[in-house]
Amino acid sequence: MGRTLEDHELDRTTDPSRPPSALWARIYEATRRRILSCDLAPGAPISEMSLAKEYATSPTPVRDALGRLRQEGLVTRGPGRGYRVAPLTLADVRELAELRYILESGVVRLAIQRATVEDIRQLRELSRLEDGKNLSGPELIQRNRTFHIALAKLARNVRTMTVLGRVLDDSERLFH
Question: Could you tell me which of 174, 175, 153 has the C-alpha nearest to residue 164?
């Protein structure tokens, strides 16, 4: 028996307090989370009909969700009405590492210039949370994301924070 949409929504860690407003958005969020966590492995086939059946809906909201995932580069078109989870290549690893270096070094420079004493105190507290020895892989990934986003907030540049969030999402598949 497949999992319900509500089961998938419980798995969301991006912002569990924000309920998606439309059915396609809920399917998008749940499927995106499954792709980022490699529950749907790179290269895995995805069909509109199987997702529609899994989420107990018509193919239309699934098609809309897959279209958004395709725009983000997380899925590619396959034969017929099929899709595939986008593969991860060595070029992807290299490009993400280079992009993270560029973004994160810039974020640190801006944060140093703009952070207040209180900001730095809060960042230190965040970095002191658990030493990481007893955390699972997904917990470590989430903790890493939380720290990097908190640092980006200190740069006080919304666009940079948004782009960094996307790059961290893309990197998440590599960590899994």
Answer: 153
The mean pLDDT values, 10 residues at a time, for the chain of 176 residues are: 46 43 91 96 95 94 96 90 92 96 96 95 82 79 91 95 93 91
In this prediction the pTM is 0.77
DSSP 107-147: HHHHHHHH--HHHHHHHHHHHHS--STT--HHHHHHHHHHH
Contact, 151 vs 111, CB < 8 A? yes
- Which residues touch 109 (CB under 8 Å, ≥6 apart)? none
Residue 164 is encoded by which pair of tokens?
């960094």
Task: Judge contact between 173 and 42, C-beta under 8 A.
Answer: yes
Give me 161's structure tokens: 């924070």
Q: Assign residue 2 a region (left: φ > 0; alpha: ψ between -120 and 50; beta: otherwise).
A: beta
